[in-house]
Amino acid sequence: MSRGLFILFEGCDRSGKTTQSTRLVQALKDMGIKAKLVKFPDRTTAIGKMIDGYLTQKSQLSDQAIHLLFSANRWEAMNQMRADLESGITLVVDRYAFSGVAFSAAKRLDFKWCKSPDVGLIAPDRVFFMDIHPDDAAKRDGYGEEIYEKREFQLDVRAKFFSMMDKSWAIIDAMKDVDLIHRQILLLTKKALQAQEAEPVPIAKLWT
Ligand code: 2DT
User: Fold this and answer.
1) For position 149, what pLDDT does the model report?
2) d(CA 6, CA 81)
3) What total of structural domains would you count in the chain?
4) Nearest CA to ligand 1 atom 17
5) For residue range 79-113, what is the model confidence (pLDDT) as tens digits?
6) In whole angstroms, how large is the CA radius of gyration of the chain?
7) In angstroms, rounded to a whole number, what is the distance separating the alpha carbons of residues 201 and 65?
8) Rounded to the nearest whole angstrom, what is the distance from the C-alpha of residue 195 to the centroid of ligand 1?
9) Domain annotation covers residue 69
10) DSSP letters of 140-189?
């Protein structure tokens, strides 16, 4: 049995990552493919609760401390994610280390320092970058409720994402119709699954 794939959704706030990742998992399950949705930050763990307090502005933390908590929140999920991938489950992940680096680097923390705690995490096989201009994102419902939802900051975050892209990334125009985006992503995911079937690639590590 071949391993599952690690499919990642990244992007700025209100770009539709959660909608599209949820729909992708459902579509894969409907096709008989084992799939699971994973969301970072995972606000349910002890570390996740500290992150939630920070994001909803109930508590304050230094930029460095919150950065390390976001990374720890990924590390605490690694054993389960590896076990899932090895048992053939495809993981559809909503945000990951690229968000970690993009947001902290946009706060002017050193780019290399930002990457270092996430070195060695499981690397995604395919990344979908939900691209939206912050001015368009700001028009969507619920925008502006959390600490990072400010225009200039989001512009900077977006630029940081672009600086980390490689050939495993696909840029998705998040302003397009939701169903159209879903079909585009499903097609790309099917292609990735077929490629893995034809020529299996082992689980890789991030930034090594
Ligand atoms: P959601 O709105 O998607 O729950 O994200 N963030 C996220 C970071 O600053 N560092 C990270 O490592 C991750 C995963 C992005 C909540 C906010 O947290 C930011 C938006």
Assistant:
1) 75
2) 9
3) 1
4) 55
5) 999 999 999 999 999 999 999 999 999 999 999 99
6) 17
7) 35
8) 30
9) yes
10) STTTT-STT--HHHHHHHHHHHHHT--TTEEEEETTS-HHHHHHHHHHHH
In one-letter notation, the amino acid at residue 3 is R
Q: pTM for the full model?
A: 0.96
Give, in order, the Cα–Cα distances in Å from 114 to each of 64, 88, 97, 107.
9, 31, 9, 11
Does residue 114 sit within a domain?
yes
Domain boundaries, position 130: 6-198
Left if phi > 0, otherwise alpha if psi is -120 to 50, otherwise beta: which for 79?
Answer: alpha
Mean pLDDT of 153-178: 97
Q: How many whole angstroms from 85 Cα to the centroid of ligand 1?
A: 23
CATH code (residue 166): 3.40.50.300
- Find where tokens 């400010």 sit: 150
Mean pLDDT of 66-75: 99
Q: Is residue 203 part of a domain?
A: no
Enumerate the H helices of 40-132 as residue ranges: 46-55, 63-75, 78-86, 97-106, 111-115
In a domain, 204, yes or no: no
Q: What ipTM was assigned to the predicted interfaces of this complex?
A: 0.98
**41 Cα to the center of ligand 1, angstroms:** 6
Ligand 1, residues 99, 115, 130, 206: which to mutate, most atoms within 8 A of Cβ? 99
Residues with CB under 6 A from ligand 1: 13, 40-41, 55, 70, 95, 99-100, 103, 148
Kindly report the protein residue whose alpha carbon is nearest to atom 5 of ligand 1: 41
